[in-house]
Amino acid sequence: DTAVSQTPKYLVTQMGNDKSIKCEQNLGHDTMYWYKQDSKKFLKIMFSYNNKELIINETVPNRFSPKSPDKAHLNLHINSLELGDSAVYFCASSQDLGGTEAFFGQGTRLTVV
Amino acid sequence: GQNIDQPTEMTATEGAIVQINCTYQTSGFNGLFWYQQHAGEAPTFLSYNVLDGLEEKGRFSSFLSRSKGYSYLLLKELQMKDSASYLCAVRDWSNYQLIWGAGTKLIIKP
């Protein structure tokens, strides 16, 4: 069984569209994250949820909104997509905020055309 | 401010030893992490250091000096499958946020 799974793996869409990326973890972890990895390979934290509460909300555009129906799921919704949103988005989870190991999903390569 | 520096790329020979350095600046240090990321794949956890010294795990070891803001990842008996990017990340105490370096691309040659 995959520990952290996210879908879709690839997403190609036009500017202005709204899209969602889903993430699920079956590890029983309390904390989940969304990261963006740009073309220069920097991983940047976007959001983290600890037991369903938003803990970190980085200065990302409000077009991005995390949604967590329960602690095993953290979905990412993006409104009015822009060319600069093209990147790889990774979901991850850890036991808690102080966890020593984070488990990453396979990544979603988003291409906005 | 917070900053992570590591070399962009390194090349080593199969069977040899390589050391990847990472220097950091952070206001509230709460641990340093090393992750491995193969091209097109997700990062996977390698090591965690929060106290000074060397942590050994098989062919991989990680060292930390908090006073110098310095860490290194040591890879022994290099194998072709070790060709990957190695990401250094530091956790900040105030918000448990991980600050990531850009990664070091390690190329292993036969």
Written overview of the protein:
The complex is a heterodimer of chains A (113) and B (110). With 113 residues, chain A is mainly β. Chain A has no helices and 11 strands. Chain A has strands spanning 4-7, 10-13, 19-25, 31-37, 43-50, 53-57, 64-70, 73-78, 87-94, 102-104, 108-112. In chain A, the strands form 2 sheets. In chain A, strands 2, 4, 5, 6, 9, 10 and 11 form a 7-stranded mixed beta sheet that branches. The relative contact order of chain A is 0.33. Chain B has strands at residues 3-5, 9-13, 18-25, 29-37, 44-49, 53-57, 60-65, 70-75, 84-92, 98-100, 104-109. The relative contact order of chain B is 0.34. Classes of the chains: A mainly beta (113), B mainly beta (110). The A-B interface holds A 40-45, 48, 55-56, 90, 97-98, 100-107 and B 30-31, 33, 41-45, 48, 85, 87, 89, 95-98, 100, 102-103.
Quote the distance from N terminus to C terminus of chain A. 34 Å
Content of β-strand of chain B: over 45%
Give me the number of helical elements of chain B.
0
Largest interface between protein chains, with number of residues from each side: A-B, 20 and 19 residues
Count of DSSP strands of chain A? 11
The secondary-structure class of chain B comes to: mainly beta
Low-confidence stretches of chain B: none
Largest sheet of chain B: 6 strands, mixed
Helix content of chain B: under 10%
Q: Give the oligomer, counting copies of the same chain as homo and different chains as hetero.
A: heterodimer
* SSE arrangement of chain B, N to C: EEEEEEEEEEE
What gross morphology of chain B would you assign?
globular
**Helix coverage percent of chain A:** under 10%
Shape of chain A: globular
N→C terminal distance of chain B = 41 Å
State the order of secondary-structure elements of chain A, H for helix, E for strand: EEEEEEEEEEE
